[in-house]
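debug: dumping io for the single-chain case to check the tokenizer round-trip. Nothing else runs in this session.
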Amino acid sequence: MNHRERAMAVLRYQPYDRLPIVHFGFWNETLDKWRDEGHIDAETARTWGDGNVADRTMTELLGFDFNWSTTFGGNANLFPAFAREVVKTLPDGSRHVLNSEGMVILEKDGAGSIPMEIGHLLEDRSAWETLYKPKLQWNPDRLDKKSLQQRKDESATREHPLGLYCGSLYGQIRNWLGVEGISYLYADDEDLYTEMIDTVGALSLKVLEEVLAYGIEFDYAHFWEDICFKNGPLVQPEVFEEKVGPWYGKMTELLSRHQIDIVSLDCDGKIDSLIPTWFGHGVNTMFPIEVGTWDANIAPWRAKFGKNLRGVGGMDKKVFAGSRADVDAEIERLKPLVALGGFIPCPDHRIPPDAEWDTVRYYTERMHEVFGG
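debug: decoded output
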């Protein structure tokens, strides 16, 4: 079996020869560290991106099989995006920068964490109608036709799974408004709140229809949201169900008509109270199942929702900064979860800068030994 076949077999509860050993990429600071230590060259560190040539190099060097976040699709975000602009330079050299999504962020040289939000262009209906809504209309240029054809040509011989990227139905709106902004908007102007969600949903569905029309053999579909934190969601679950849930349903129904039966969703944080909406509207694979401080894993979700709820992730990446004994203990913890079926362990986020190269290598070696090759 190749990596594509065995990954899909695991998630469909079919026989497979061994468990695929999967990762979810790296922080840039991790790559810089490993470059400085001599493990990778400067070109690999500089050019890395999910699923590209540098990513395949990293995958092979570390002993993984593939990066789950290897996806392709059309553009259902702002088109064109806002041009990056330095709004203000502060005395310490840090900058207020307008980014591609219309957020003003604090940018500091060498800072690797999520930047502080200073402000947002999207503050009212006028900004929505003049600055944002025009960037959320269908345009054939949202599709890269050359890349679409290339993916179609590769379909029959591809050995690694490829996901169809379906975009974000709420997370990107949260980015445009900020957490406070989107929360106040629901209370202050529910009609505008709904209009934003419906505009993004309709565009996402249209882009998905156009990509699927090319006849590419995708192995799974994949959404991105990132709308939870360590204590739960950044949106009221009942509001999410009412406003966003139906758009998930429309998109997963379309995917089903195109024989795509594995639908994955990337959301960090404690996602438990949003799973009913995703699962109820056809999203059946949770990712990356962050262990965090709340010990997330697939077992209680499987007990509640049954075997149709799959998972990719749930491996505690923090052990990469620890000892080999820590790695061994983590693999032991994963064994009963793998035995449930429909679950592929994967580091529960990007591999961070405190990860040691040799420890990651030890993890992949042990995973191959423990789970069949």
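debug: round-trip ok. The first strand starts at residue 22 and ends at 23.
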